[in-house]
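User: These chains co-purify. Model them together.
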Amino acid sequence: MMSSRLCYFITEIGIKSVYISPDLNYGAAVHADKWIPILPNTDAALQLAIAYVWLTEGTYDKEYVETHAVGYEPFFDYVLGKAEDGIPKTPAWASEKCGVPEWTIKALARDWAKKVTSIIHGNGGPGIRGPYATEPARLEAILLGMQGLGKPGVHQAKMIEWHIHTPYYPLPYQSKQRPDIAVFAEVVRPPKTDYAGFFAHPPHLLDQSPELKELLKPMEVAPQQSLPKCMVHDAILNGQATWYGLDKFIGPREEQFHLHKFPEEGCSTIHMIWTDSPCMTTCWNDGYRFVKALQSEAIECVVAQHQWLENDCILADIILPVTTKYEQDDLQEEATGGTYEAVYREYPACPPVGESVTDFEAVARVAAKLGKEYYDRYTGNVPTEKLVEMFYNASGLKDYLPYEEFKKDNVVILPPDPDVKNVKPGLREFYEDPEKNPLKTPTGKLEFTSTALQEFFPDDEERPPYPKWIEKGVSHDESLSSERAKKYPLLCVSNHPRWRMHAQCDDITWTREIETMKIRAKDGYQYEPVWLHPSEAEKRGIKHGDIVKVFNERGIVLGAAYVTERIMPRVAYMDHGARFDPIDPNGIDRGGAINLITPTAITSKNATGMVVSGFLVEVQKVTDEEMAEWKKKYPEAFARKIDKATGVCLESWLIQK
Amino acid sequence: MAKAFVIDVSRCSGCYNCQLACKDEHVGNDWTPYAKPQPEIGQFWLKVQENVCGTIPKVKIHYIPKLCNHCEKPSCLESCPQEAIFRREDGFILINPEKCNGCRDCLKACPYNAIYYNEELNIAQKCTGCAHLLDNGYKLPRCVEACPTDAIKFGEVEELQDLIPGAVVMKPETGQKPRVYYRNIPGKFIAGTVYDPVAKEVIIGCRCLLTSGGKVMETYTDAYGDFWFKDLAVGKYDLTLEAKGYARKHFLGLNTAVDINLGDIPLDKE
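Assistant: Joint model of the two components:
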């Protein structure tokens, strides 16, 4: 809602918003002055054509480019058709690839060049999770650079998780203290490299709580090896994996050039999985392959630690039921919402349900089974009240408000930083003086041609030194021009869900009644909506509300057709995160977990990321005969009890002995 | 003294917080004598109606939160043979759940479909304006309180006098005099993009003349070659597109029973 209020503000002060997306998304629905529909994952083509218009019409900031950028000549040559491929990246060339009319591309390029323009993302969404998504991301930086990135009003921003990019984009309500309540795992296992301030607890804050530091000492057993989540299937099924970069998606640039392998020297392959976020099937890449990995002989035991018997839990051997935060005694900070920052004690709202215990307690009890010394080492036998104090003292607020004072109200709301307006936004300092305020690139400048990529991967055709349009490559073949598109002629776009938080909250009674959240089909089951343009639906004899199957070589996911003008032709749209409800866990899902059929390969050969949008599918109506056949073949899948309000009853997975 | 709601549709971002907050207040909570619990699903004492208008890429969406209009002349009240429906001093129309016998005459009488039948309890139910809260010190009904964009305003009619002129009510022809007012519900639109098919360029500044029964409206295409005539009444319209050096183009008898996107319109050179 913070974002929506900001969007209203942007409109009120007279700034026009142009939304470029395959779908008229929920932001565009109310805030767009102009919607330009574009085929999923084809932004690079549009961006190159915009650069072409600026170069041929001389409407970019030449002086800025000369003083703030390096390696622009080869990129400009590529755009103008003077590079090896000999193809000028004209609006006509791009139009065919991205589905935006040539005249609209030119109009957009000129309007952008004429006006002070910033780029705002919701969060990156499908744009950064497609095949070769590195290219549109880099092209965006180049286009902003061509218009003087850092100039007043020329920025890139995102609209959620406001704490992540501070101090570069301070908000009016932001405090000076920037409180941070550590997540246990962060302090137990601090990151190897320094990128604190993003997703890790700043180490200097831990120093403010010597008791906590002392308590954690015996636990400093850093894992011997790690693995990016999007490669777990590979590591299991192939027995090994190699990749570049950290196992996290934010890290220092230099890390991208380190080759890692799994298993590391002298280490084991995976025999057992213990997961506390069991949603690989519905939130990560190529879910059916993950199912296969869990079922493979290599895996001897799967333990899932979760509140609900959902998604990957149904493939686990042992389930540790844990509490929700409403049952826990905890300490919490609010720094991401974009309003006043606060730290507050969270007392349990209700006693733990059933046999559930906190995650901490669940692990502690396993430790206890190993022996008292393990339990003592893990817990330190510190009572909760004391733990809360220790974590408070490591939050950065110790000097501002001592714990004894905090305890009186159990909440502290922090005043806005009076100096916040003096902070120069974004890359303003770089804009003003690039020599004095260099970027973190090797040259300190905006690198249109990356010097590091040139050095480490000069021949990488999937992420070349300067960004290119990549229609297909060794990793992916997911374009409408592909041979595969004859069988799977729709490009699937998958957003972060509007009515869920990834896999969480798919079963909320009242949101499931909202028409864009679930569609109750003729069999009474609430299916995940599959957006289709009326023209595509008509071609396939599909009507609004029909049960449909979305499929490719990787499997079938069911949904219900949401026929709408909000999505462009040649596209199917389905949000991720719907709860996995397998008819056949190896290839047919009724729940609508679209990530089950997303691509196998990572972003590109040398770029480690998940690919979960911008891939080929076909959509067909599920006939009564086909459904009857499945019912006959998989009777147990259809025997699961279904609640009218919340969907599949999880107790149906229980076997009474 | 009468309470009223004023809903600014242009400020509604479709978050559905009002619809959800209403359920949070009434589902499973017994506020007798104001209302008995709402069933878990299926009833919407406040329902957000999503309206998708036009065709790709000229698509506009607006959301209209709809609830009981707490009419000055409520047909439901008159229809009730049990005299279970009554008006409070503050103007709220309530159904006494203990008097209601489930005959459902009020469901038929209400032109706004704002009343629901609770099969389990055999009673009619609807929005109470959260009277049980207002009688106990709360300032606002839950739906109003939950609105993050202040799209739903609530208060005495007198307090809302600045907002009511120019606002509309649903189905005024019924003569029921609703006390839920709406601002900025968009009318119909006629839109398109004008371009030169040879140069493959949009035409900027093309004069667009729209006439209907002697009334003339004028606009010019913007940087994207787009023109928009918004907030039109339902009716027949003639459109003329004129750009220097191009042959004129006419569209006759455009019927705004639905929103009209004329798509990308080529203009030929003169």
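The domain at 184-413 of chain A is CATH 3.40.50.740 (Rossmann fold).
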